Write the structure tokens for this entry.
Amino acid sequence: MGNSKFFESEKLFDNVTVIAGLAGEQCYLVEGSEKALLIDGLSGVGSLKAFVRELTDLPVEVVNTHGHVDHCGANFEFGECRIHPADIRLMYDHSDPERRFGFAMSGARAKAMATPPTMADVIPACAVKTYPVYDGDVFDLGGVQLEVIGVPGHSFGTIVLLDRERRVVFSGDACNPNTLLFLPGSTTIEEYRESLLHFKEYQPDFDVMYGGHGRNAVPKAIIDDALELCGEIMAGTDDRMESAYTGRHCYYAKRFTGDFKRLDGGIANIAYALDGIRKK
């Protein structure tokens, strides 16, 4: 599709373009006949708004699957977004330009550049007009409908978006081979299990998920894997593999290789803290 110094894009479906940032973080531009929805906003290094304008002439609205640094950068450029109210504070906590720049520069692509980005390329933080998005909401783009499903876990305000016609879910970081549940703003394992049971109700309506990291589609069976892991963690029968991620101590439910592939062949994995298993 299109590339720039900061972004790479590829057509995923007839109306969906996946856009990757410097650290490999991903967002999705979904177009209808009347408007477009940008699902997540990368880290805010480089003008994603200008890049998106090259891909579509439609009015564009931004929705965040959650409030982390690698998903909300474009909010400060567009000046408004839809986000679950539980993650608004998280969005601002992750708004620091140096933090967003550091995340972008952690990617191999940024490190390999002959002329790497500088702080001048970071979109400055600002006040963002936020509109609430909740479980059960529907975005009607004109011939394309995206249904919001609340999946609190990775953050209290995590959502995913379901396209029933194309039988896909845009899942952010809600459920993947490296689901982090030990960060500030994450739920307990017990609460996450309840979220997954709710998510599972929609399993008959889609086949695969496209997340915020990794270009390949993830089969919907990952939900069942994650539910099983939650049960094992709560029972204390998981591998409880000691590790560290993003500088924080944690435990992984299952042992894995360097690329987060489980040794036992399963798909999902969960990183958690020992004090974050049961509801408080």
User: Anything to note?
Assistant: The mean pLDDT is 96.
